[in-house]
């Protein structure tokens, strides 16, 4: 049985690589075929040179994504069938730390090894790839600082959570997986609540949005939508990248609205208001609790499956572990599961795109849909986003609707963005 599972796992991992390469090749071919012609929905506002840059960036990103996938798959196979995790476990066991402490040490050591192995690729993406297209603003000092802070934070939070789950696995009997799931959900909600106040400020500077015409627009929008927030903040996103974004974070009364400073620099106040209306919709339309419930349900299924697999010797032997333990069960499940669950990507992406369409509709009711269309065009242009995508690739990878479809829908047109589209600053 263990040999059969080894083969099944290897086939699943390789099929994932093959499918992703096939989808990537479709996307590259699609972008190349349409590189010389700006989509009709953007012809009035995106220049051929800007569109060409976006196409080149999209093609290059596919090459980088394929390299990263190959690297990640090699690490996965080394940790499992190649005996990497078994070797780490032996070294941790030699320290004779005790069952629980050894388990926590094994989890943290494995995650640290995976993080260290990913550094060269992350550095290349930041300092070579993004730099070559003019997006990178991260300095080596910031890169290293982020890395160290991430390790310390991961060691503290991850170590505490691993210790609690491993203790439950050892002490709670046959239904440990249900209690561990409750611990996981509670920890996730606690981190979500504490992220804006305690964690995010460790990496970025958050400044309250100054009073003025933009703040007046935002306050009026929040009042119209009946939305309460802890505050509206500007994040120094320009410290790391020229890409712009906006998001909500937090839980309950700790919710915060966050704008990247790069976004505020490129959009007009009316466009920022429309983007915020879209983001507000995810709360008002209950998208956020729906996603939290789905995440909780999927994690419950995951813990139940882990509860069964942890009792099967073939699960350990099939993934390169000869000495079973709670910690190795937890780690094997975490690193092997994505080789199977990627098949859910189209369904999850379709659900997300449905939410995005609904949020756009909400934004047109509480702000100006044409301003949102203009903001999206500006963001697509600033971020060199692919304006034309292969439908099948998009079905697997895109959590947001295709740009041309989304903008045309906002404008109530199936063809073009008129020249009168609200202009954004360059």
Plain-language structure description:
- It contains 17 helices and 4 strands.
- It is globular and about 65 Å long.
- Strands 1-2-4-3 form a 4-stranded mixed β-sheet.
- A hairpin with a 6-residue loop joins strand 3 and strand 4.
- Helix 1 (2-33) crosses helix 16 (391-397).
- The chain is mainly α and 426 residues long.
- The chain has helices spanning 2-33, 48-79, 84-93, 99-132, 140-171, 176-199, 213-225, 261-266, 269-284, 287-309, 313-318, 326-336, 338-341, 345-366, 369-382, 391-397, 403-410, and strands at 206-208, 231-235, 246-249, 256-260.
- The chain is 69% helix and 4% strand.
What's the structural blueprint in terms of helices and strands?
Layout: H1 2-33, H2 48-79, H3 84-93, H4 99-132, H5 140-171, H6 176-199, E1 206-208, H7 213-225, E2 231-235, E3 246-249, E4 256-260, H8 261-266, H9 269-284, H10 287-309, H11 313-318, H12 326-336, H13 338-341, H14 345-366, H15 369-382, H16 391-397, H17 403-410
Parallel strand pairs: 2-4
Antiparallel strand pairs: 1-2, 3-4
Helix pairs in contact: 1-2, 1-16, 2-4, 3-4, 4-5, 4-12, 5-6, 6-10, 7-9, 9-14, 9-15, 15-17
In angstroms, what separates the terminal alpha carbons?
61 Å
Number of helices: 17
Q: Helical amount among residues, as a percent range? A: 55-70%
Gyration radius, in Å: 24 Å
Q: Name the shape in a single word.
A: globular
Structural class: mainly alpha
Q: How would a textbook summarize the main sheet?
A: 4 strands, mixed
Q: Find the count of extended strands (DSSP E, 2+ residues).
A: 4
Q: Largest sheet, order of strands side by side?
A: 1-2-4-3
Low-confidence stretches: 413-426
Strand content: under 5%
**N to C succession of SSEs:** HHHHHHEHEEEHHHHHHHHHH
Average of per-residue pLDDT values: 89
